[in-house]
Amino acid sequence: MGKSSKDKRDAYYRLAKEQGWRARSAFKLLQLDEEFNLFEGVTRVVDLCAAPGSWSQVLSRVLIKGEKFGRSAWEDKERKDRLAVLKASVIKKSEQELQEPEGEVPEPLRPRENVKIVSIDLQPMSPLEGIITLQADITHPSTVPLLLKALDPESYDPSSTSAAHPVDLVISDGAPDVTGLHDLDIYVQSQLLWAALNLALCVLKPGGKFVAKIFRGKDVDLLFAQLKIVFERVRVAKPRSSRASSIEAFVVCEGFNPPKGFKASLDNPLGAAQKLPVDPEKPRERTKLYRRLREDGITELELGSDEEKEGEDVRWIAPFLACGDLSAYDADASYHLPKDRVSLDPVQPPTAPPYKRALEMRKKAGGAYGKTKGLI
Ligand SMILES: C[S@@+](CC[C@H](N)C(=O)[O-])C[C@H]1O[C@@H](n2cnc3c(N)ncnc32)[C@H](O)[C@@H]1O
To answer: What is the annotated role of this protein in its UniProt record (predicted)?
Structure first.
């Protein structure tokens, strides 16, 4: 696919290059922030599966540089839109009162204090100012001490399995190299999610947030039910920049509140086979789902709260939200390219892509498209 064609068929890919983001994924985090105000009061963050680093760039620009994106930029835009509507309305308000300041003075940047951001990926990541990057496997137990040490180098205690100074937010955009075999891809993705959750349990502070990519497979509601035991609110979100045709979505978990006595453990990590203990003192919000197939072939779902009966497998369904401004680009649509557009190279080419060796071999054999005689 040529550069122009990809720019046309993927507006977010083009925008990412134009706005200096290392990957189009930046827009997913920004649109999640628009809906959930993720960065409010946040100074300590862990970014899992972070390469090439567009989510870390968002963190760096919002927390370290104090720029306005996502929610706060959206609030600004709302204010300006309201002002424009008021100006155009017949209300005889003093014109001056509604006037924007002449030549609009840019708002000063508001960098936050004591920001700490640690980013982890299997792949090496090009450095980003103010961010600690670790090359490690998030599914490996040895990554936990690495992370704890990176978060608190001075007060790190090797015998501890939790952070001395816990973090406000853990984000994970982990994705395996997809094989196209749906069930296998969903399984590997869920292993990444459990690994991310286990790391989050070790480092999150009470009330903290966890945002992670999921693939919506058929048993995803079991995962929601487990997350609901450790977080006050669990929602699933689909940002506009994530293709509607993909099963990708994001769980947004707020209000970290594990059951009493619960301790994250490296020897016995949570996973699909290991369930969280339920806190008997914590009121549980359970929802019962009734499914009925009508004669015309339509499935009716009826949701209703119900008392849990002994031994009954009651599942909890997480609320689902689409996020991102409706006027934002549709990730599945092709757009005409602006006339003044210049085709740009990606901001950060992959440092060590899995196809690197194949490219080298192809180059050695005389290049692409039919010139690779020597390869076979
Ligand atoms: C979709 S990319 C993340 C994009 C990133 N959020 C950004 O904004 O640039 C998925 C990443 O997951 C990483 N990954 C996959 N399995 C991993 C693992 N076991 N440990 C750490 N990183 C992993 C991949 O190396 C890849 O860089």
So the answer is: Methylates the 2'-O-ribose of nucleotides at positions 32 and 34 of the tRNA anticodon loop of substrate tRNAs.
